[in-house]
Specification:
13 strands, six-stranded antiparallel sheet, binds uridine-5'-diphosphate, five-stranded antiparallel sheet, 6 helices, 252 residues
């Protein structure tokens, strides 16, 4: 296993990643694990190679966003499953943008999976595993006092810019960006940036050339629905994205 330069103490361990300090205060090292979880970690598995695939896909997408002027925490790759990033204070709100109805939207509303959503729908969830990441209303968000209303406007704006950028990129390689979740954070200097990861673990991606509702899935729904071929699907996403993006930069 390739260790990043001067890995310090473990700062945080999540379901799919570990975050380590480094010898630089303004750099942390993120290790992408092969662990797969779904349904608030009720379903778990080890998927060999998933960590490296998500690390590389995230790197390509972060660099694409940066090229379009969308700020992210990304600094560069190290080895095949480490990413060096700027430390941020993560806003405990999961921001979901939906271009096509799927997943929880169809469980909570009378809407058929696959229905296009124009304009895209933006949903906010309170990031709290113990509470099961509940859907937030405007007033609940205000009551939580997690962000000011101006910061919330900036978060929404950034989420729509991420959607425009990624939707177009994926369309170029024959993939439909159905929906995705991003997390945002504030750097030490107070800048709002896209943080965490953007990968088939956090996006729904459908192969546009395939009409079968299960076969077209190239994302974590393959794991959630026991469809098999999860790592192969993620590999297909990587192959397509790297076909239209420059090689991600190596940190250090
Ligand atoms: N998502 C995520 N982490 C979460 C919840 C959702 O990355 O904790 C992603 C999910 O993969 C999908 C999008 O956010 O691309 C919308 O998910 P949804 O609300 O439909 O929930 P789900 O059906 O996945 O429970």
């Amino acid at each position: 296993m390739t260790l990043p330069p001067a890995t310090g103490p473990l700062l945080y361990e999540g379901k799919a990643k570990r975050v380590y300090a480094t010898d630089q205060v303004d750099v942390v090292a993120v290790e992408y694990k092969d662990d797969a979880t779904a349904f608030n970690a009720l379903k778990k598995a080890q998927l060999l190679g998933k960590g490296a695939l998500n690390c590389r896909i995230s790197a390509l997408l972060f660099e694409h966003l940066e090229r379009l002027g969308v700020p992210t925490h990304y600094l560069g790759l190290h080895g095949d499953h480490w990413m060096m990033v700027r430390p941020v204070r993560v806003v405990p709100v999961e921001v979901v943008v939906r271009n096509v109805a799927a997943g929880s939207l169809c469980r909570q509303m009378p809407i058929t999976a696959g229905t296009p959503l124009d304009p895209p729908l933006l949903d906010l969830y309170y990031k709290d595993d113990a509470l099961g990441d509940p859907l937030l209303s405007e007033v609940r968000l205000e009551r939580l006092q997690l962000v000011t209303s101006a910061q919330m406007e900036a978060i929404r704006d950034l989420a729509y810019r991420v959607n425009d950028a990624l939707r177009q990129l994926f369309a170029e390689v024959g993939l439909e960006l159905v929906d995705f979740k991003i997390e945002l954070g504030f750097t030490g200097a107070g800048a709002l940036v896209v943080a965490d990861e953007i990968s088939p673990d956090t996006c729904r991606l459908w192969n546009r050339a395939v009409s079968d509702a299960q076969e077209r899935i190239l994302d974590k729904d393959r794991f959630r629905q026991d469809l098999g071929g999860v790592v192969e699907a993620y590999g297909e996403v990587l192959k397509r994205v790297q076909g239209v993006c420059p090689e991600p930069r190596v940190y250090g």
